Amino acid sequence: MCTYRIALDDGLVMQAENTFQIKEPFQAWLQQQVENWLLAQVNGKNQSRPRHSRLSDEELSEKLRAYPPLEESSFPSLAAEDYGTYLKSRSGQLPKGLEKWL
Asked: Could you say which DSSP state residue 95 is in?
């Protein structure tokens, strides 16, 4: 096994420890994360793009088949209204239901 040195900002390390609630020593956790990432990169060479869902495109298509297709007319046109007014009216407002994810 080889040893590689990297330098990290102490503030960033503290943020990561707090954000990810790391219980083990940070160095051991980081090494495991880097190894997992490298393995994924090496083993995933044949993948054309990363998969962000557990469903394949075909499975997702099958699930969404029951819903009506999206039409352009289903979305309001921002070109028809003053965009500055729209921004002022929506500024600082969270979309409904989003606060539970914060």
From this structure: P
- Read off the tokens for 30: 């980081």
Task: Compute the chain's Rg from CA coordinates.
Answer: 22
Structure tokens that stand for 78 in this block: 């921002």
* H/E run at residue 87: helix 83-90
CA dist., res. 93 & res. 15, Å (int): 27
**CB-based contacts of 94, cutoff 8 Å, min separation 6:** 102
- The C-alpha atoms of residue 8 and residue 26 are separated, in whole angstroms, by 11
For the segment 12-49, what is each residue's pLDDT rounded down to a tens digit? 988 888 888 888 888 888 999 899 888 888 887 655 55
Distance CA(30)–CA(26), nearest Å, equals: 6
The model scores a pTM over 0.70: no
